[in-house]
Write a structure and sequence with these properties.
four-stranded antiparallel β-sheet, two-stranded antiparallel ribbon, 111 residues, globular
Length: 111
């Protein structure tokens, strides 16, 4: 799957949920980020079999799904490609990325 995504500049905890249409065996997730780390900060990736319709009543987290990756701090020094390889493949229909940038400039860009 490939997508180009930009969140709104003042979106406090932006998230992107990708529907794979059918449950799929996922062994890795690859993020292609821009030179600034894509605005990623303390980001999380989760895999689930159901849609993430909203955050917890407007609060700071998405509670559903299996947490497969957490970025500690910024992705600024990660390079243009971040490969998240799972030790055991997971079956899921939805892959969700959520960003927890502490400021208003936490725009998520997935080129």
């Amino acid at each position: 799957f490939e997508s180009d995504y930009n969140s709104y500049n003042r979106d406090v905890f932006p998230w992107l949920a990708i529907d794979l249409v059918t449950p799929s065996l996922i062994s890795q997730v690859v993020l292609y980020v821009n030179s600034l780390g894509g605005g990623l900060y303390n980001a999380q990736i989760r895999i689930s079999n159901y849609s993430i319709a909203s955050t917890n009543n407007g609060t700071s987290g998405i509670s559903g799904g299996l947490l497969i990756w957490t970025l500690q701090g910024t992705a600024q020094n990660s390079g243009p490609i971040i490969r998240i390889k799972l030790s055991s493949p997971v079956v899921g229909k939805w892959v969700t990325l959520q960003n927890f940038h502490p400021g208003e400039s936490g725009v998520v860009r997935i080129p």
